[in-house]
Amino acid sequence: MAFLSAEKLRDRRSSIPELILRARQKGVVSAVTPVSRTSAYRFLLRQGISAARVQQAAERDSRRFAYPHRLQMVLADGKHFRAGASRLKRVALFFIDDATRLGLSVCVAPSEDTGVFLKSFHALVCQYGFPDTVFVDNGPGFISEATLGVFARLDLPLIHGTAAYPEGHGKIERFNQTAKAAVLRQLAGRPEIDPSCESLTLRLTHYLREVYNHLPHESLAGNTPWERFRSDEKPFRWPEDRARLDEKFSVHLKRRVSPDHIVDIGDLAYEIPRGHAGRHVVLEQKLLDDRVFFIDRGRAIELFPVDLARNARERRGSDQKTILESQDPAPPGAAELAFNKSFAPVVDADGGFLDPVTRKGRPSR
Length: 365
What we know:
Blueprint: H1 2-10, H2 16-25, H3 37-46, E1 74-83, E2 88-97, E3 103-109, H4 114-128, E4 134-136, H5 145-154, E5 158-160, H6 170-182, H7 197-211, H8 225-231, H9 242-248, E6 250-256, E7 262-265, E8 268-271, E9 280-286, E10 291-296, E11 299-305, H10 308-313, H11 334-342
Helix pairs in contact: 1-2
């Protein structure tokens, strides 16, 4: 017991089975003497020595940071809530400026996905210009292949916060708590609240622009986010060409065509022209308007979701190969040649008899 106490205090990370093995190796107990691990555990507890496994915090650089100028970093996060009398599930995607705490924009959708995030970010760029950096968590809309491809084409850094580390998302998480207490929790269970995404987006946009952005903020020395954002002299970085900007919000996908000429993109099935069953094809998806194009030998053919009801009414094509017949008569075949040879006429075109051997006309006498 003295050995257990002294050794555990000297090496906190050692386990009880390890301590028993050390006691046997040092001759404190013999190799055949039974030692109960449960008794050893209870003895250490009675001595006030913790026998639990020592949990060591992960080593990370957890220093606080803050950018000095507007749009040097934009924070984005989705906050789930319920709205309307039926308490429908909704998610509000907020964009917050790190330096000024200004609520830049918000978009409400049924779920947090890639399309919602990229369309909202496109609208933000058109309104405020390009940010220097975007900070997000590891939500499904932030880590998708389409999101990474768009930000790579825009040449913008997209930083994903460490999972299971809420301290790294402190500013946006604190804003989510403020928004929940001020407006989000009041939307559930009320019949006068329209639960449509458009109506909720208008309501939350009004909250950001007319209420939150004009409240004094403690971290801004009592200034409002709008005052700090407006007084910042950092110039905006606008896109040079709107058409080129829209073109970058697209992604190329590789899909395999099913035997019934269908390709799946997300939850939608698109019908592709016949003749490509079983092949791998390249598709281009326009993320701003959800249009899908099939790239075929350099041509872009727009695809549409399959219309099952129309396919049920339309007449099916024949699987038998049809041979197009020429307008010109076919030459005589072998059977016709043999028939003509056996039943050839006995007179020529002039009415004279033919030679029975050569089948040529005899000279007239």
